[in-house]
Amino acid sequence: MDRLDNTIRPYAWGSPTAIPHLLGIEPTGEPQAEMWMGAHPGAPSRTDRGTLVEVIDADPEKELGPAAVAKFGPRLPFLLKILAAGAPLSLQVHPDLEQAKEGYADEERRGIPVDAPHRNYKDANHKPELICALTEFDGLCGFRDPLAAAGLLDDLGVDSLKPYVDLLHAHPEDAALREVLTAILTADPEEMSRTVAEAATACTHLGGAYAPYADIAHHYPGDPGVIAAMLLNHVRLQPGEALYLGAGVPHAYLNGLGVEIMANSDNVLRCGLTPKHVDVPELLRIVRFRPSDPGVLRPEASPDGEELYETPIDEFRLSRYVLPEAGSAHDLTRATPQILLCTAGSVRAGEHDLTPGRSVFVPAGEKAEVSGTGTLFRATVVA
Is 288 helix (H, G, I), strand (E, B) or coil? Predict the structure, then answer.
């Protein structure tokens, strides 16, 4: 096993205290948004053998196992994170694999630099993701029923929202949602800014179900994404609950600490709550305009103590172990690569003692025995 030394990303929306509190260190006063564990070239984990990218590149089949290399190529196909949202992230959606390949090839043909601010596709991969709450965690996920969204907007009493309310009563539902989101994102910026300001005042006054949108508007005054956010389901996860975000599902994380895992990709189409580029035509091509339940996941327990978060993709597999007794041991050896992350208590993984926020990389087939009293997340692949 390799103990991982991981980079913390200081994005502006990050909580200044949540990750330091988990790690048991003093806050710096700066936002600390994400701690990355994996072999993403932007911030690979470091080991005593070099970065995890260098370790895997030196012998992919030994580190990842023949089955994983055959299925995903000579790279770790997932990125594991601790995510600490102190403010809302951008409202966003991810492409499916075919859309990512098409979009990436098109932008390559057009010669758009990969670091250009208006580029949508940084790579040719999809980006399904899963967030598991460590604290209460607020987010937006998927479209509400259009009539429910219409009621939410109508009760604000803002005259300039009435056309959207009327559109949401139209049929079919997918066309109604498409038309409303298009209208919101293409509205005159000054008029939309006034609408958002009126809506924010009403949300603050009403409170209750409107409180999350008042907070979003506080962080993003005048942003059309505030109105777009009201088309989506608000969900509050309790610790241990999770959300799976598949392709085409609009979503945003609002507040809380969680363990996130995703396919290794940087492809994001933004819908609002951001100063970054919003490509409305491409966004409308990617979004799946159908109302859905957020689909809160709770782990399925197996006899050996593993609690698995079921997802429909193979690039990652996330589970956890809640170890109640220091004397009991679990053999987690697998023929696929693993990252083991402690989030509570004290866990012994091989020769490494893990406290909250500490992690190890386990090469494919490497003996992986764990013991202790605490909570351990296990990230691997299906190969």
Answer: coil
DSSP-derived 3-state class of residue 206: helix
The H or E element containing residue 168 is: helix 162-168
Mean pLDDT of the chain: 96
Query: Over pLDDT 90: what percentage of the chain?
Result: 96
- Which amino acid, one-letter code, is at 253? Y
Task: Specify the DSSP class assigned to residue 209.
Answer: G
Instruction: Say how far apart CA 98 and CA 104 lie, in whole Å.
Output: 10
Q: Which residue has the tokens 């023949």?
A: 66
pLDDT over threshold 80, residue 327: no
Q: How far apart, in whole angstroms, are the C-alpha atoms of residue 144 and residue 134?
A: 25
Q: What is the mean pLDDT of residues 266-274?
A: 93
Nearest to 144 by CA among 111, 107, 173: 173
Tokens 């690039």 sit on residue:
315
From the list 50, 39, 129, 34, the residue with the least C-alpha distance to 77 is 39
Predicted TM-score (pTM) of this structure: 0.95
Catalytic residue list? 270
* Closest CA relative to residue 310, chosen from 300, 301, 320, 325: 300
45-79 pLDDT, tens digit each: 999 999 999 999 999 999 999 999 999 999 999 99
pLDDT band at 110 (very low <50, low <70, confident <90, very high): very high
- Residue located via tokens 């075919």: 98
- Which residues, including other chains, have CB under 8 Å from residue 228's CB and lie 6 or more apart? 91, 181, 184, 185, 250, 271, 272
The helices-and-strands tally (H runs, E runs) of the chain is 12, 21
> How would you class 169 by CB atoms within 10 Å of its CB: exposed for 0-12, middle for 13-18, buried for 19 or more?
exposed
Which residue is it, tokens 């995890």?
A: 52
Candidates 352, 374, 358, 376; CA nearest to 25 is 358
| Cβ atoms of residues 67 and 77 within 8 Å | no
* Cβ-based neighbours of 303, under 8 Å, separated by 6 or more: none
Residues 114-130, mean pLDDT to the nearest whole number: 94
